[in-house]
């Protein structure tokens, strides 16, 4: 399989090759890979790519999934208007 | 007590509203009823209950240490301070990587079901299904009902993942199941035009032309809120990934927070519904001290339902639940696990009766399901337990076909040796007319012969019964019809 043509993070357009290269460079947790590549920072917040990256790291490094992958979530869980955050009430 | 439900979508019902098939389980719960109708009933109940506030189109945004939940209600951020919180956010579809997996035409099974069953839109003409779990099998069947051409079901393991009756249902439509295969590549320039699948043992490749690749490769709990509030989680592959650590009442490690359904671990919908009831009542019990009797009943039912689900129970054991619970061992059903087609010998056993007209129960796998028992007017079907194989008393059976119509697995047929006819369950359109010649198909969807429809019994729940004339040698092979006009 041509890993340059396999999209792992479809939100941020990151290929399996890029992920594998990063693992080889020593980034061996999903969190680290997210920080250097943006994989996991898209609209789905890593729900699609996270498990795939975790499996890839685990396969290459031999470490168990739970060691390399620990999903974190911070509020808000979805898109939200700025005016809601700053408390502005008027539409204009 | 007041209850508020937050739902991101503009309607209630989650995945249930897309499930057009009949559910397994116990007749005491919702077995034999199509998911869409179960959803309707539940939604009706909620809507007529006055102390439930419904927040549709309302996404929960966060849950904070001071007990405040924020949600976007009509695009406005609102705050709520509940006494108890039940998280039932369901699951997210897992994806698998393959070449050109970003081509338009690659869908998740959930999206296909939403398009097809919620909005009435067919995603394409020729579909390749990846994954033979219950979702892959059911969605393939539904696609075929919607007249898509399902080119095959690809399964990486050496056996079919879902219930074997579901597999038999798609096989008799002529849909092949490729076990020990995986997808390696989507073909096409600007959209999917085909796929290459590979035998994982021999590495032999096969090209399949299709315009849709549908991924039914598993689910994982959708645990955003749980992660945010630092609920203790544990990685349990049997349950789909990270699941919350909880006790037998589905209470998590965070005070006042409960879970139910797939977010607690991937399982069948029937279990999710029971879990919902259990956790709801338990949360209420903590406030009022009531409902303990009902809570115990539900726990027992859940156990009964899980008697043959070794995967789920093994997962639960890792959470120190169900510790002394013993799963009934599964009998190996030989090739049926690979092909979805029962072995000759098993079928012969069902045919040994000297009677002229009787039912054939092609139900070989232990799964929790019992609607056939109560459908029989002469009490000819017996089951020793919810998960046991139904046994037919041939002397009592009158060949009426009631059980054919209710079996959620469409695994029961009636043959009449004298009349030379077979009664088949039929869930397709158009319905044939009486006297019309139709194609009679075998368990693999191969054409056996053309013969005449003797009668049609239209059923309220749309599993219609078709009695067709069949020549003697094909009586035991006829499992489906095709209307050709
Ligand atoms: S697939 Fe990577 S963030 Fe969505």
Describe this structure in words.
The complex is a heterodimer of chains A (92) and B (485). Chain A is mostly helical and 92 residues long. Chain A has one domain (7-85): Orthogonal Bundle (Arc Repressor Mutant, subunit A). Chain A has five helices and two strands, in the order ββααααα. Chain A has helices spanning 16-25, 30-37, 49-61, 65-68, 82-86, and strands at residues 7-9, 14-15. A two-stranded antiparallel sheet of chain A has the order 1-2. In chain A, strand 1 (7-9) and strand 2 form a beta hairpin. In chain A, helix 1 crosses helix 3. The longest helix of chain A has 13 residues, at 49-61. Chain A is elongated and about 55 Å long. The termini of chain A are far apart. Chain B contains twelve helices and 28 strands. Chain B folds into three domains: 3-88 and 223-317, FAD/NAD(P)-binding domain, CATH 3.50.50; 95-217, FAD/NAD(P)-binding domain, CATH 3.50.50; 344-482, no CATH class. In chain B, 23% of the residues lie in helices and 26% in strands. The mean pLDDT of chain B is 96. In chain B, the strands form nine sheets. Chain B has a seven-stranded antiparallel β-sheet. The radius of gyration of chain B is 24 Å and the shape is globular. The longest helix of chain B has 20 residues, at 269-288. Chain B is an alpha+beta fold and 485 residues long. In chain B, helix 2 (109-118) packs parallel to helix 3 (134-145). Chains A and B meet through loops of A and strand 3 and helix 5 of B. The structure holds FE2/S2 (inorganic) cluster. The site of FE2/S2 (inorganic) cluster has 13 residues of chain A, from loops.
Topology:
The complex is a heterodimer of chains A (92) and B (485).
Chain A: E1 7-9, E2 14-15, H1 16-25, H2 30-37, H3 49-61, H4 65-68, H5 82-86
Antiparallel strand pairs in A: 1-2
Chain B: E1 3-6, H1 35-48, E2 52-55, E3 59-63, E4 69-73, E5 76-80, E6 85-87, E7 91-93, E8 106-108, H2 109-118, E9 126-130, H3 134-145, E10 149-155, H4 164-171, E11 177-179, E12 181-187, E13 194-199, E14 205-209, E15 212-215, E16 219-221, H5 224-228, E17 233-236, E18 241-244, E19 257-259, H6 269-288, H7 292-305, H8 310-317, H9 336-339, H10 344-350, E20 357-361, H11 371-375, E21 381-382, E22 391-392, H12 402-406, E23 412-416, E24 421-426, E25 437-441, E26 447-457, E27 464-469, E28 480-482
Parallel strand pairs in B: 1-2, 6-19, 8-15, 9-10, 9-15, 10-11
Antiparallel strand pairs in B: 3-4, 4-5, 7-16, 12-13, 13-14, 17-18, 20-23, 21-22, 23-24, 24-27, 25-26, 25-28, 26-27
The structure holds FE2/S2 (inorganic) cluster.
């Amino acid at each position: 399989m041509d890993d340059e043509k396999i999209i792992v993070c479809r939100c941020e357009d990151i290929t399996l090759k890029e992920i594998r290269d990063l693992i080889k460079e020593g980034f061996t947790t999903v969190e680290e890979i997210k920080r250097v590549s943006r994989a996991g920072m898209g609209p789905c917040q890593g729900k699609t790519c996270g498990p795939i990256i975790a499996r890839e790291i685990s396969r290459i490094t031999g470490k168990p999934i739970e060691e390399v992958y620990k999903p974190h979530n911070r509020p808000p869980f979805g898109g939200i208007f700025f005016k809601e955050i700053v408390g502005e009430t008027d539409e204009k | 007590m007041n209850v508020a439900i937050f739902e991101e979508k503009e309607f209630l019902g989650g995945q249930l509203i897309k499930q057009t098939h009949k559910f397994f389980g116990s007749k005491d719960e919702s077995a034999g009823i199509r998911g869409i109708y179960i959803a309707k009933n539940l939604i009706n109940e909620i809507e007529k209950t006055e102390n439930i506030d419904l927040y549709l189109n309302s996404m929960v945004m966060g849950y904070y240490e001071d007990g405040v939940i924020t949600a976007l209600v009509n695009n406005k951020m609102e705050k709520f301070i509940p006494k108890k919180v039940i998280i039932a956010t369901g699951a997210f579809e897992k994806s698998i990587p393959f070449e050109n997996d970003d081509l338009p035409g690659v869908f998740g099974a959930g999206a296909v079901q939403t398009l097809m069953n919620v909005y009435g839109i067919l995603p394409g003409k020729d579909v390749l299904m990846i994954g033979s779990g219950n979702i892959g099998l059911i969605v393939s069947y539904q696609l075929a009902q919607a007249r898509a051409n399902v080119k095959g079901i690809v399964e990486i393991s050496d056996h079919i993942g879902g219930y074997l009756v579901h597999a038999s249902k798609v096989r008799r439509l002529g849909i092949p199941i490729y076990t020990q295969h995986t997808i390696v590549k989507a073909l096409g320039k600007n959209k999917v035009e085909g796929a290459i699948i590979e035998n994982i043992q021999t590495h032999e490749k096969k090209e399949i032309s299709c315009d849709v690749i549908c991924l039914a490769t598993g689910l994982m709990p959708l645990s955003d809120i749980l992660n945010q509030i630092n609920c203790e989680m544990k990685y349990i592959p049997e349950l789909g990934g990270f699941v919350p650590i909880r006790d037998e009442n589905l209470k998590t490690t965070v005070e006042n927070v409960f879970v139910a359904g797939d977010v607690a671990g991937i399982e069948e919908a029937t279990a999710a519904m029971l879990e919902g009831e259990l956790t709801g009542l338990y949360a209420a019990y903590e406030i009022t001290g009531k409902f303990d009797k009902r809570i115990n009943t539900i726990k027992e039912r859940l156990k009964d339902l899980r008697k043959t689900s070794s995967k789920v129970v093994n997962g639960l054991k890792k959470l120190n639940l169900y510790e002394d619970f013993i799963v009934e061992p599964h009998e190996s059903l030989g090739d049926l696990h690979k092909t979805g087609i029962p072995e000759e010998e098993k079928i012969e056993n069902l045919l040994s009766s000297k009677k002229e007209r009787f039912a054939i129960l092609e139900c070989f796998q232990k799964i929790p399901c019992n609607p056939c028992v109560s459908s029989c007017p002469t009490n000819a079907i017996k089951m020793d337990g919810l998960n046991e194989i139904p046994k037919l008393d041939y002397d009592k059976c009158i060949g009426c076909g009631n059980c054919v119509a209710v079996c959620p697995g469409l695994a029961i047929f009636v043959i009449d040796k004298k009349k030379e006819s077979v009664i088949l369950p039929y869930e397709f359109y158009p319905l044939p007319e009486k006297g019309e010649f139709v194609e009679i198909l075998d368990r693999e969807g191969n054409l056996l012969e053309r013969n005449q429809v003797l009668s049609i019994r239209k059923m309220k729940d749309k599993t219609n019964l078709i009695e067709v004339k069949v020549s003697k040698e094909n009586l035991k092979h006829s499992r489906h019809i095709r209307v050709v006009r």
